[in-house]
Amino acid sequence: MSEDERVAGRTDADEAGTDGGTAGLLDGDAAELVSGTRFGQFASVGVVGALFDVTTSTALKELGVFPELAVFIGIEVAVVVMFLLNDSWTFSGQGHDGLLATLRRLARSNLVRLGGIAVQLATFGFVYRVIALELTVATIDGWFVLSKVTGIGVAMFVNYVAESLFTWRVHAE
Q1: How is the chain split into domains, by residue range?
Q2: Which of 6, 60, 62, 63 makes an SS bond possible with 70, Cβ 3.0 to 4.6 Å?
C-alpha cells in the first residue's frame, strides 16, 4: 500500500468494494462507515475494552466503591485501552504520526465518547437500579455485571459512528 493510500486509509480492495461487499455501492462517508473490515476490528477492540471495563468496574464495586463511580472508572480505563488499540490497528491509516497528534486524538476520543459514556451510564443505571434483580454468581453481584454489559452493548454503536467520523475522520481524504 502506498503512503498516500495508508494516509487515506484506502486500498484497491476498499475501492473495489471487496471489504464486505458494500463499499463499492456507497460513496464517501457511508462507505467508510459500513466497512466490514473496519467494523470487525472496532468490535474486536471493543471486546478487549469491555473486558477491561467489566473487570475494573466489578473489582472496584466488590471492594466497596459506589457502583456508578466504579462504572465510570471502568469506562475510562476501557476508553484509553481501546483508543490505543484502535489508533494502532483499526484506524492506523488515519491521522498523523507523532506524540502531539496522538494526544490530540486521545483528547478528541474522550470528548467524542461522552455521548457513548452517557448512553452507557444511563443504560446501566436503568437496568441496575430500575429493573434491579438479584443475581449472585460465585459471590459476585451478577446483576451488576449484566447491567454493565448491557450498557456497553447499547453504547457500542454510538461510539463506532462518533469515533469513525470525529476522532479518526474516516470520511476525510
Answers
A1: 35-167
A2: 60
